[in-house]
Every structure is written in C-alpha cells, then in structure tokens.
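go over whats below:
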Amino acid sequence: MRHLSTQQLVRLRSLLDTAESALRQRIQVQDLAGDDTVGVRHFMSDQDLHELLDITNARARMQDNSYGVCVDCGIDIDVERLLAYPTAKRCLDCQRLREQRRAHLLS
C-alpha cells in the first residue's frame, strides 16, 4: 500500500463499496427468483460468495497495509490493475503465471 496515495485508496475503497452493493443487490434479486432457477441460482450464489470473500479480503489487506502488494512476489501491484480489478492480490506477472500453471494442470 506504500505506493498508493490517499486519494487512490479512497477511490479503491469506493470501487469495493460499489462492487459489494451491486453484488448484494444481485443476490437479493436471485433470492426473489422462482423455483425454476434453483440450479442456476446455486451456481451463481457460489460465484457471488467468492466475489464477496474477495471484497472482504481486499478490505482486510487495506486494514493491515498489505493491500496493493502481490501475495506471491511482494512487489507493488500497478495502480491501473487495482483500479480495473480492486480485489487483485497478485501482480499481473504472478497472476499470468498462476493461470498458466492452472491451465497446464487441467490439460
């Protein structure tokens, strides 16, 4: 977090708040859906849960001053990446490497 200005952190917190609000609204709409969408709702709820956990974890990293620092290599995550993906916990290079490894394991 050492590379982020106060203004950037305020913007990023706002993005997290907006994402959480939209997520909670989507969950509420899903709960109001009829029984004919139970299978889809279950899948989406699992995805929603992961998104909510990502937001919660990003806020925890803000609290302990590790937000914006890659969990794998320890370098600062580019501000542009955080603005595009506020819950990012890895720099772009480490995220690509992780995805390549995952793809290799699945092939």
About this structure: The CA atoms of residues 97 and 103 lie 10 Å apart. Residues 6-32 form the longest helix (27 residues). The chain has a mean pLDDT of 88. The radius of gyration is 16 Å.
